[in-house]
Automatic annotation (TrEMBL):
Glycosyl hydrolase family 13 catalytic domain boundaries: 123-571
Keywords per UniProt: Glycosidase, Hydrolase
Official protein name in the record: Glycogen debranching protein GlgX
Family of the protein in this entry: Belongs to the glycosyl hydrolase 13 family.
Species: Microbacterium pumilum
Length: 695
């Protein structure tokens, strides 16, 4: 139980919400624009205004005055929509700060950016008006959510149905051809890799490469200009912002949500000695985590870590989220290295960090999807399962167990005659990872994934034993070494039809597991077609055909996509597959799924069958406990070794038949729903799954 003092601290609003920190950035009023900038260490801040066309021509400089709470401000008619501006900040060169009064800095709340050359940017004041009409957020319930993670440019760059002028753009993503694909799959929520304005690291440019993924944020408020059409870029930041909003509006009109992968844990300023573009020059000590001597505490592996133990840094992040969720109508966020955001003044993670609580409790963000990547690279950085109420988390334990079961365990069994473990751990993941997420948070705290942008694609996962990253310019040292992959007998491309068929079935097993598990499934764009990156498991620096989706598909790829469509439809039709809560023993829990487990003989699973690596077969029966939908019950057969087996359907009180819905053994999904009586023997081929509706 919390002490009265602790309870009061929890109940009190975090100091980051002080009114002193309201309305930072540029706001417009009858006397022109007001600029408000926070710095707790500066001695002087100056607004610098530029010519509309020559970004090196300073037309005016005005001092800002210090007010309450460390906020500096100025009101001037020079600030209007379209004004190009920067700030210059001076202060003492001590206490971890790096002031330089000659450096032109981006104002942190800039809604638009203009490039004045390499590592040289100007802020742009924008009006931001937009007609949303009657289109609102889809508000897809978590239990019906199916996330489709992809790169904004890569999704539409090569789509033949998208006009060339729109390829790889915000407008291209919302083109009817792309929307048709999303809707035909049945996904509900498009999760985009970073679209905040970002920069490429100098070391990549030296190798002729680029930061394609975008995890190197330049501005927390400006959409990345390079993703806009040439026409919008020509018109400037206001048009870029309109194009982004137009994309969101069209996707919403189609019932599709937009989730942004956001990088608040570090910035593109890198380590000390890197670019000084904004926060470092404004108040280095208060924006970045440091030792007493000014050396950075880097828990992100990217050179710096934003210090969310300070009010200003936390408020900057919260205000950015509010802007994207309200002004730009974004539906949710996936927080890169979210453990960094939850580190306190001692640099230790706490799930009750004021920023983490503010994000899920803030009324402006209410109803949004908040998804944590629950780790970073610092001490105590792995926090899967430890975030608080209101958060969902990427479940790396799910990813690893599912890959092990269908891939590395099978590889091991080929060499050692039996798999290393039984089926129990896999079953726990299938049923919602109750050993990772608390009873109170339930299965929807888990975002299940088998692949993501980071790592092997699905096809490469079943085609390569090791990474092939030489093209990244780091001598194959980058990228994960432990992939839990299995090439099934040949490394990479092969003409061996048996190997190819086995790989295709492995992909169907992985997709079937993902889309039939309790929790929130996340599908990586292109996996529905078996996209390959030729064994590169860290393709962050390739803006090329290697990473863009291809849309010309072989028959087997079209068959795989048909399996994905059928699995998503079956998930929607069978609420027993998507429980909202964990069932409680001996209690009736609304919107849960009551689970029963049987072996291949139709008998209740014994302890030995759970743990014995020679017995990797189970029948999983899940029955819904209706609250909002009709009663539903399914049976899923899982067979985890390469020897065929006969499985007897269990005899359950009140059950008269089992209706076949889907099998991973089929190259093409079948529409035939055959019926089988309890006690019927169903042959399963090696390493396969079979789904039934129980009636």
């Amino acid at each position: 139980m919390l002490s009265p003092e602790s309870a009061a601290a929890v109940a009190a609003p975090p100091t980051m919400l002080s009114a002193d920190l309201d309305d930072l950035g540029v706001t417009f009023g009858p006397d022109g624009g007001t600029l408000r900038v926070w710095s707790g260490s500066a001695d002087e801040i100056e607004l610098v205004v530029f010519d509309d066309t020559d970004l090196d021509w300073i037309t005016e400089s005005l001092p800002l005055e210090l007010g309450a709470g460390g906020v500096w401000s100025v009101t001037t008619s020079l600030l209007r929509a379209g004004t190009r501006y920067a700030i210059r900040v001076d202060g003492p060169l001590r206490d971890g700060n790096t002031f330089n009064r000659r450096t032109l800095l981006l104002e942190p709340y800039s809604r638009g950016l203009a490039s004045a050359g390499f590592e040289d940017w100007r802020s742009v004041a924008v009006d931001g008006s937009f007609d949303w009409g009657s289109v609102g957020k889809p508000r897809v319930p978590l239990d019906r959510t199916i996330i489709y993670e992809g790169h904004l440019k890569g999704l539409s760059k090569r789509h033949p149905g998208v006009p060339p002028a729109l390829h790889g753009t915000y407008a291209g993503l919302a083109h009817p051809a792309m929307i048709e694909h999303f809707l035909s799959l049945g996904v509900t929520s498009i999760e985009l890799l970073p679209v905040h304005a970002f920069a490429t690291e100098p070391r990549l440019l030296q190798h002729g490469l680029t930061n394609y993924w975008g995890y190197n944020t330049l501005s927390f408020f400006s959409p990345h200009g390079a993703y806009a059409t040439a026409e919008s870029r020509r018109q400037g930041p206001e048009a870029i912002l309109r194009e982004f909003k137009g994309m969101v509006k069209l996707l919403h009109a189609a019932g599709l949500e937009v989730i942004l992968d956001v990088v608040y844990n570090h910035t593109s300023e890198e380590g000390l000695g890197g670019p000084r573009s904004s926060l470092r020059g404004i108040d280095n000590r208060n924006y970045y985590r440091q030792h007493d001597d000014g050396a950075y505490i880097d828990v992100t592996g990217c050179g710096n870590s934003v210090d969310t133990a300070t009010d200003a840094a936390s408020r900057l992040i919260l205000d950015s989220l509010r802007y994207w969720a309200n002004d730009l109508q974004v539906d949710g966020f996936r927080f890169d290295l979210a453990a960094t955001l939850g580190r306190d003044a001692r640099h230790e993670f706490t799930p009750e960090h004021p920023l983490l609580r503010a994000i899920v409790d803030d009324p402006v963000l209410a109803g949004g999807k908040m998804i944590a990547e629950p780790w970073d690279v610092g001490m105590g950085g792995w926090q899967t399962g430890n975030f608080g109420d209101g958060w969902s988390e990427w479940n790396d334990r799910y990813r690893d167990r599912v890959r092990n079961f269908w891939l590395s365990d099978v590889d091991y069994a080929r060499r050692a005659s039996t798999a290393p473990v039984g089926i129990g751990g896999f079953a726990t993941r299938l049923a919602g990872s109750s050993n990772t997420f608390s009873l109170e948070r339930g299965p929807l705290a888990s975002v299940n994934f088998v692949t993501a942008h980071d790592g092997f694609t699905l096809r490469d996962l079943v085609s390569y034993d090791v990474k092939h990253n030489l093209g990244n310019g780091e001598h194959n040292r980058d990228g994960a070494d432990t992939n839990r992959s299995f090439n099934h007998g040949a490394e990479g491309p092969t003409d061996d039809e048996w190997i190819l068929a086995t790989r295709r079935k492995a992909m169907r097993n992985l997709l079937g597991t993902l889309l039939l598990s309790a929790g929130i499934p996340m599908l990586t764009a292109g996996d529905e077609f078996g996209r390959s990156q030729r064994g590169n498991n860290n393709a962050y620096c390739h803006d090329s055909a290697l990473t863009w989706l291809a849309w010309d598909h072989a028959p087997w790829q079209r068959d795989l996509a048909a399996h994905v469509r059928q699995l998503i439809r079956l998930r929607e039709e069978n609420p027993a597959l998507r429980p909202i809560r964990f069932a409680r023993l001996g209690e009736h829990t609304p919107s849960a799924s009551v689970m029963e487990w049987y072996d291949e003989n139709g008998e209740t699973m014994s302890i030995d069958r759970w743990t014995n690596p020679s017995h990797r077969t189970l029948q999983y029966v899940a029955a819904s406990t209706p609250e909002l939908e009709d009663f539903n019950r399914i049976l899923l057969m899982v067979h985890g070794n390469e020897r065929p087996i006969d499985v007897t359907l269990p005899e359950i009180d009140g059950v008269s038949r089992y209706v076949s819905l889907w099998s991973s053994a089929d190259e093409s999904p079948s529409d035939v729903q055959s019926e089988h009586a309890p006690g019927t023997v169903i042959p399963l081929m090696g390493t396969s799954m079979h789904l039934f509706r129980v009636e």
